[in-house]
Amino acid sequence: MTAGKFEIKAYPEMWKDLDMDVERFDKMRLMLGDIYEKTYLSQKNRPSGMAYFDNMIAEIHGGRIKELLAAKKEGKPVIGTFCVYIPEEIVLAAGGVCVGLCGGSQGSVPDAEKILPRNICPMVKSAFGFKAGRICPYFQAVDLVYGETTCDAKKKTWEILDNMVSTYVMEIPQMKKQTDQDMWLAEVKEFKTKVESLAGKEVMLEELNRAVKTMNNKRKALQRINMLRHTNPTPISGKDVLLIEQIAFYDEPVRFTEKVGELCDELEQRIQDGVAVPGKNAARVMVAGVPMALPNWKLHNLVEGAGAVIVNEESCIGTRYYKDLMDEDGEDIETILQNLTRRYMQIDCSCFTPNNERIDQVLKEYRESDAHGIIHYSLQFCHTYNVEEIRIREACEKENIPYMFIESDYSPEDVGQLQTRVEAFLEQISG
Fold first, then answer.
1. What is the rounded distance in angstroms from the CA atom of residue 376 to the CA atom of residue 315?
2. I need a labelling partner for 1 at 20 to 30 A (CA). Which of 43, 69, 204, 386 fits?
3. Given its phi and psi angles, is residue 200 left (phi above 0), alpha (psi -120 to 50 degrees) or beta?
4. Same domain for 46 and 175?
5. Whole-angstrom Cα distance, residue 192 to residue 272?
6. Domains contained in the chain, number
7. Domain membership flag for residue 334
């Protein structure tokens, strides 16, 4: 795709049929296209395999929505989510589609603040505002929203959101004792019953085993690209990998896995040929913390705009989503659900206490990525990550790892201040 000609495709008739505020959404479409062009298409020396992901963005509010609507016509349940705790294997086994919802933009926050308190997480407000303002085709297309109890703002918002779109809530354990694992297994079984009800069919053993392999393959592809970017010098920008991680929540999983695999083949060739982005002496930064829902590219744009490169994301949009796999070829459904429960219990979300696994994981990923320093990124009013940041900082100080904490939101108001801090940090780790 040629720079200067990028456009997020318009589907006004389909959006009208979805009962969207078409006029307002079209303005947001144009703004997003402009931001994407400046943020992504201005990069030099991108891998050719990124063309597929550019096209995914061009069709993110059109072609992909058409696919979801076609699935619904075939009786397949379409379930929207914000969280890596949704057992996607069960949705796939039922023939359904699991898709991320809108929630990383400042544009929908005023819609939410007409109803919700102002002093809660920007991601929760942004997501809620997209539904309240009827400016997200995914919200308008799904049969069900999957909610969870990873934070207080979310679990109370689901009660309000349920008045606008059917919302199913799973209780996420806050500890990892046997009683918590038993509770989570019961929650998984209830979710399976709910999905089967939506699909009008029972999940069978063969379908569940196939779904486990599909998700394992997708996660292996993401592990592979993350491992390749750890090469020094890295063959791909952090912005491009972040984009792929974000698209992972929207795209059809088998197709996505194939395209990531093709890109990885290209990256291996680039490494062999010595093709790097940016240069060999660029500062290498690892980001840890909260998820960065599309189109939240603020921090990556600041870091890489200053000449550094981001080489790892320890977050739900990054390694937390794909670092753990499942055993394959389970002999019966009960065994697979138990394996699934164990796999999801390994996710070290900050909702857990204690959460020593996450501290160890951050240090492990820092060493594996050959980074020069860590930026812990959090959203305002995200209490669990903001408090857990203290322990991450102490661990980094103990290990003499250069470290910086950034707390922000989706507005552009703090960009100048953040740019100054980021540049000072990069000077420190480059020195």
1. 10
2. 69
3. left
4. yes
5. 46
6. 2
7. no
3-class DSSP state of 87: coil
Say whether pLDDT at 5 is over 90: no
CA separation for the pair 99, 217 (Å, rounded): 17
The answer to whether the pTM exceeds 0.90 is: yes
Both 155 and 213 in one domain: the answer is no
Mapped onto helix, strand or coil, the DSSP state of residue 307 is coil
Residue ranges making up the domain that contains 419: 209-235+251-325+350-430
- Kindly state the tokens that stand for 35: 């931001």
What is the distance between the alpha carbons of residues 294 and 299, in angstroms, rounded to a whole number?
Answer: 13
Question: Would residue 319 count as lying in a domain?
Answer: yes
CATH number at residue 70: 3.40.50.11890
Evaluate the CA torsion angle 264, 268, 273, 278 in order and state its sign: positive
Q: Where are the alpha helices (DSSP H) in 137-204?
A: 137-141, 152-161, 178-199
Cα 172 to Cα 188: distance, rounded to the nearest angstrom? 10
Question: What CA–CA distance (Å, rounded) separates 40 from 308?
Answer: 15
Residue-wise pLDDT for 49-62, tens only, equals 999 999 999 999 99
Does 195 share its domain with 290?
A: no
Instruction: Fill in the amino acid letter for 424.
Output: A
Residues 213 and 194 in one domain: no
Q: Which long-range contacts (CB under 8 A, 24 or more apart) does 323-327 make?
A: 323/219, 323/223, 323/361, 324/219, 325/216, 325/219, 325/220, 326/89, 326/212, 326/215, 326/216, 327/212
**138, part of any domain:** yes
- In the predicted structure, residue 185 carries a pLDDT above the cut 80: yes
User: Is 339 part of any domain?
Assistant: no
The kind and range of the H/E element at 376 are strand 373-379
